Amino acid sequence: MPKQAGGVVLADNNGVTTGMRRHGFKSIAMAAGLALAGLSSVAGHAAAPAPVGAVASPAPQAAAEPGGVSNIAPTTAGATPAAAPASPLLAQDGAPAVRIDPLVGHPQDGVFGLQTQVTKNGEFAHWMHNVVLFPVITIISLFVLALLVWVVMRYRASANAIPSKTSHNTLIEVLWTLLPVVILVLIAVPSIGLLQAQFKPAPVGAVTLKAIGNQWYWTYQYPDHGGFEITANMLKERNEVAAGERARTDADGPRLLATDNRIVLPVGVPIRLITTSNDVIHSWAVPAFWIKLDAVPGRLNETSFTIEKPGLYFGQCSELCGARHAYMPIAVQAVPAPQFAAWVAAKGGTMPAAGQASNKVIPQPGADSNPTEPATDYKAPPAGPNPATATTPATPQGATQNPAGAGNAGQ
User: Fold this and answer.
1) Which portions of the chain have biased composition (kind: Low complexity) (predicted)?
2) Which of 169, 172, 237, 408 is at a distance of 20 to 30 A from 311, taking alpha carbons?
3) CA 14, CA 209: separation in Å to the nearest integer?
4) 216 and 316 in one domain?
């Protein structure tokens, strides 16, 4: 009987071998044809799914997120398409290619103190911290410590068997009342000036940037440059991304601070920053700009600043806004004005006339005068036998969309 080994039939010695030799040439030709057909079939099955019982290689594990919550922003409807990937105006994330300064624009390991400031207000605040506040705090702390040590040593029980009965000293009481007042007045003068400068209205010709907070990402609009919109999400690490998702690299920025889309702003041009929110209170904060401005639902907050040095600057949301509060970073790329104009053109935007004041209406989300929301035409009900009893639909409030008169008012 023939035997089978490894899929090949072996003949015994009962004459079958003689027949195989007789037809040897024909068998070799058939084997060659089967081999060629096998090569083509192997290529066709390379992309086929693994058979049942086979062990597949595990896919990269995605970052853990709360149930039912996604950190990826929805794609903006009707967004202006960016320039071609080969365009020299754009880097991988749509911003001009700029190298990260290891000493400016982001936190540094083992370094204490404020970040290097690149705005006038930030430079003044940095000077005030180093020259005014820190020396005053240090001197007062050392003075109080010296007084405590002197009192402990001078008036200890072993050195004063009979304690003093002195209860008042007019000179000392006048000094400890007037000196703190003088110190506070001296500190208040530069403090009020800095506070006023932080909320100074932007001059004519400023670039308007509207930052909108979401759970948990940022959306940016450029009203003066065609109204195009950019959505920025945090870039995850290589061991956290899913298949086909972009991971952070060192060129994108530090961990937890790099974004898939940077916002681009010009150097030396006043920036008019407007913040708001679509859900809860967020805060747009970039330490190198000395900017921290809350984004409140149904409200517009505004400030202005001017970036004096090109580079990459990173920040984060600084208002507790939910489970992924720590994962909505801010990445700002400051470039010269001509490069900013080229980036706007690559994004499909337009540049306003030089020195032209911003004439764009910046509506508040949910406001009654928001032109971006569809208007609801109200038709009065037809008059019946008793018009006084006709039911009038409640008009929703602008910011909250709650029916007027509802809620816990007065309780």
Assistant:
1) 386-404
2) 237
3) 93
4) yes
Of the listed ranges 24-38, 134-148, 281-295, 340-354, the one predicted with least confidence: 24-38
Out of 346, 372, 395, a domain closes at 346
Q: What tokens appear for 299 in the block?
A: 């409200």
Tally: H helices and E strands in the chain: 6, 12
Pull the structure tokens for residue 181.
């007042």
What is the domain count for the chain? Answer: 2
End-to-end CA distance of the chain: 99
19-65 pLDDT, tens digit per residue, is 444 444 445 445 445 444 443 443 343 333 343 333 333 333 333 34
Do 87 and 99 form a contact (C-beta atoms < 8 A)? no
Do 118 and 311 contact (CB within 8 A), yes or no? yes
Whether the pLDDT of residue 310 is over 50: the answer is yes
Residues 285 and 332 in one domain: yes
What are phi and psi for residue 344, nearest 5 degrees? -60, -45
Whether 301 is in a domain gets the answer yes
Which DSSP string corresponds to 197-239? HHTPPP-TTPEEEEEEEETTEEEEE-GGGT--EEEE-BPBPTT
Q: Read off the pTM.
A: 0.64
Q: What is the CA radius of gyration of the chain?
A: 36
In the chain, the largest separation of any two C-alpha atoms, in whole Å, equals 134
User: Is 308 part of a structural domain of the chain?
Assistant: yes
138 CA to centre of own chain: 36
pLDDT tens digit string along 381-391? 455 444 444 44
Give me the pLDDT at residue 87, please: 57
**pLDDT higher than threshold 70 for residue 85:** no
| Buried b or exposed e, range 154-185, using 16+ CB within 10 angstroms | eeeeeeeeeeeeeeeeeeeeeeeeeeeeeeee
* Distance in angstroms (rounded) separating the CA atoms of residues 202 and 306: 10
Give yes or no for residue 223 having a pLDDT over 50: yes
Q: Give the whole-angstrom CA distance, residue 207 versus residue 211.
A: 13
Taking alpha carbons only, the member of 238, 250, 264 closest to residue 347 is: 264
In a domain, 19, yes or no: no
Reduced to 3 states, what is the DSSP secondary structure of residue 16? helix
Does 261 share its domain with 241? Answer: yes
Four-residue CA torsion sign, 393, 398, 399, 405: negative
CB 396 within 8 A of CB 404: yes
